[in-house]
Specification:
Elements: H1 5-23, H2 27-34, H3 38-45, H4 53-63, H5 67-78
Helix pairs in contact: 1-5, 2-3
Length: about 80
């Protein structure tokens, strides 16, 4: 499977938004609770920035979601094939 960086970033952002909304918190609250700058969270959600693995773990912990669940949802949306 060939991956497109822009598409991957967009889907990652959509997944973070999905889990954030599922948790019922605002972007600002995610920022405050995670210690990440709100502008950085916004850039991730808009597919402009790629977070590190550590940052994904922080976001997941803040949202009460395992990082593996985030990756699984990304794989689903990318229609990942083994």
């Amino acid at each position: 499977m060939k991956l497109n960086k822009d598409k991957s970033a967009k889907i990652l952002g959509e997944v973070i938004v999905h889990f954030r909304k599922e948790a019922g918190i605002s972007q600002e609250q995610l920022s405050l609770d995670s210690g990440l700058a709100r502008s950085f969270v916004s850039e991730i959600e808009r597919g402009i920035k790629f977070p590190t693995v550590h940052t994904l773990m922080v976001i997941g912990a803040t949202l009460g979601v395992r990082p593996s669940a985030i990756m699984s949802e990304i794989e689903t949306r990318l229609k990942w094939k083994d």
